[in-house]
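Summary of Year 1 activities. Much of the first year was spent building the evaluation harness for sequence design. The harness presents a backbone, in tokenized form, and records the residue chosen at every position. We chose the following record to illustrate the format because it has been used consistently in internal testing since the harness was completed.
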């Protein structure tokens, strides 16, 4: 891969396994949206547009310093996805999913934003999650201009810890409001250190996350996979459970049994396998019941 800096962009050539729609529309992140040219999003206080043209990936609005300090890691550009996909393709079911979502990468997101975003995600859909996250950011974050439009940083722990009921209600948090505020207080007060959590083994980090209000097993695994580099985490919701039963086990299993099955079958990259399967099955409507 080659990195070239232009006036206001970084141009990456020779990037394999990279497609913005596969990355930003697979349910792992909520601050990226298509704008007719590419996908624009905010990470921390940096806003860029990601565009694919021919064999190049263009990061519009990024400096070389920001690329090295943020975007290279965030976009997971140092992981060898080609080798991972070759191994996955030995599995006939996963081979189809990999072929369909060939440009997917797991983003290395901020643990704090990911924690709150996935508390919001429980029993929710992506459109509503995005709306709630944006309203919280507009209400409690800071404005960052990009091409004559304001984007907003995600609220820091102290801001969310001090948010009143009306603010949380107005942003659409619903019953999740108290969970968000209580978890924010744990982080703001130092009772929960996400930096320390990131250094723990998977099982131990998962146990700590499950102590947070609003964090169940699926949410904990999403946080571990999308922000703490625990690629062995295999988030299981009702839909993923159906997908695994329909495509693999051909019999009903508990969520615990599904996770164990996935760990044994997909190994240390079980979480990546889950994302390929999720993206493929969602678009192919595999695992959906008629009433949905």
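For this record, the design step produced the sequence shown next.
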């Amino acid at each position: 891969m080659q990195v070239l800096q232009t006036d206001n962009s970084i141009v990456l050539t020779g990037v394999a396994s990279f497609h913005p729609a596969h990355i930003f529309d697979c349910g792992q992140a909520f601050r990226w949206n298509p704008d007719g040219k590419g996908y624009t999003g905010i990470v921390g206080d940096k806003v860029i547009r990601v565009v694919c043209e021919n064999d190049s990936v263009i990061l519009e609005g990024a400096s070389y310093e920001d690329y090295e300090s943020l975007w290279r890691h965030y976009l997971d550009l140092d992981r060898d996805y080609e080798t991972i996909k070759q191994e996955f393709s030995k599995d006939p079911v996963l081979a189809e999913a990999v072929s369909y979502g060939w440009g997917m990468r797991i983003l290395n997101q901020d643990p704090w934003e990911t924690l709150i975003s996935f508390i919001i995600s429980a029993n929710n859909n992506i459109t509503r999650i995005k709306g709630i996250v944006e309203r919280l950011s507009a209400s409690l974050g800071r404005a960052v201009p990009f091409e004559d439009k304001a984007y907003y940083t995600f609220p820091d722990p102290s801001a969310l810890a001090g948010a009143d009921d009306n603010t949380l209600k107005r942003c659409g948090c619903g019953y999740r409001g108290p969970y968000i505020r209580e978890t924010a207080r744990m982080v703001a007060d130092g009772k929960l250190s996400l930096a320390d959590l990131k250094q723990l083994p998977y099982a131990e980090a998962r146990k700590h996350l499950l102590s947070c209000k609003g964090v169940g097993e699926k949410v904990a695994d999403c946080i571990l996979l999308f922000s703490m580099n625990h690629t062995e985490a295999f988030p299981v919701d009702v839909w993923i459970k159906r997908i695994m039963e329909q495509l693999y086990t051909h019999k009903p299993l508990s969520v615990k049994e599904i996770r164990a099955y996935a760990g044994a079958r997909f190994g240390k990259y079980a979480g990546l396998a889950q994302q390929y399967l999720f993206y493929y099955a969602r678009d192919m409507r595999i695992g959906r019941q008629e009433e949905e």
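The CA atoms of residues 40 and 49 lie 4 Å apart. Quantitative recovery figures across the full test set are reported in Table 2.
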